[in-house]
Design a protein that fits this description.
The complex is a heterotrimer of chains A (94), B (129) and C (121). Chain A contains four helices and five strands. Chain A has 94 residues and is α/β, with parallel strands linked by helices. The radius of gyration of chain A is 12 Å and the shape is globular. The two termini of chain A are 16 Å apart. Chain B is α/β, with parallel strands linked by helices. Helices cover 36% and strands 19% of the residues of chain B. Chain B has a five-stranded parallel beta sheet, with helices on both faces. In chain B, strand 1, helix 1 and strand 2 form a beta-alpha-beta unit. In chain B, helix 1 packs parallel to helix 2. The chains are: A alpha/beta (94), B alpha/beta (129), C alpha/beta (121). At the B-C interface, helix 5 and strand 5 of B face helix 1 and strand 5 of C.
Amino acid sequence: MILHKLTTSPFKDLNLQNCLQRLADNDGILLSQDAVYAVMHQDISHKLSQLSGKVFMLKEDAEARGVLVNEYIQTINYGGFVELTLKFNKVVSW
Amino acid sequence: MSSFTLLVTSAPCSEQNAYSAYRFALAAVQAKHTVNGIFFYQSGTLNGSSLQLTPSDEFDLYAAWKSLANDHKVPLMVCVSAASKRGIITTEDAQDSDNPHFSLTAPFESVGLGELAILMKNSDRLVQF
Amino acid sequence: MSDSNTLAIINQSAPYGNSNGQESLDMAMAMSNFAQDVSLFFIEDGVLQLLSKQTPANIDAKAYHKTFPALEFYDIDNIYVCKQSLESRGIKVSELCVDITLIELHELPTLLTCQQHVMSF
């Protein structure tokens, strides 16, 4: 039950790819900051779409960047971000 | 209600992390959670510099941190060893090292890493930015 | 469930391009001093910190890797290294400067389950 918090673009580094390789069944992913660009990455976006219910995106960061949200990703605001960290047992920041 | 420790390891201005941490802290206190403390480590200690002169058309994160501390009683703790080597020192540190300048003032506090251990022990979640 | 006062520190950065490795080690030793039960994880480029043959003085960097073998005296005995991260970099366990426990890629989340808090550098 780990929430993986991503902050960098998957076009820049492998943080999200590595995280996906290690993801446990109960884990979740939060795309924040430049990690919201993950939805523009074809391969990764496809992988994320298969993890329905486990992928979250920070609304403020997506809107700030003009990133459109896919239907398989749940958008949350900062209040939702706070509650999300409590739904999972711990948070790992990549 | 739950309790949080935030660990900020990124500098202001160059990265978004510290701004995200501030918004998270604000959202947490607004939801009636307790933020036991914000602990600044690595380049995150630069958030504590009182010498930041923010252009008037940019968000003043330093002022925002101070309001958070004053309005919501959130301690702002700066790791002394990580801060000192980055030029973030209190007036006492400055006197001890015969330095004419200092850059760390209240509500930011200069503390050792032991304070972080205490914060973490008493927090439901540690979130790093 | 997680045990109280346990801390996992994940190291994923190569040693000298930024201060993550050195300041992570400072953090680990301090936390252990303050009664935290610290486990260290080295994954991705973080495994490069553990190579024995390093001479960072050449680039004005601190030889902090020499501290790794002494961590047992700081009560830090759990040092986990990702097998796949070593393999993809062509590194053998015999090239590392400290005794470690090899873990598989997918074991990390499981091992983190019993930790109260996690930091990453």
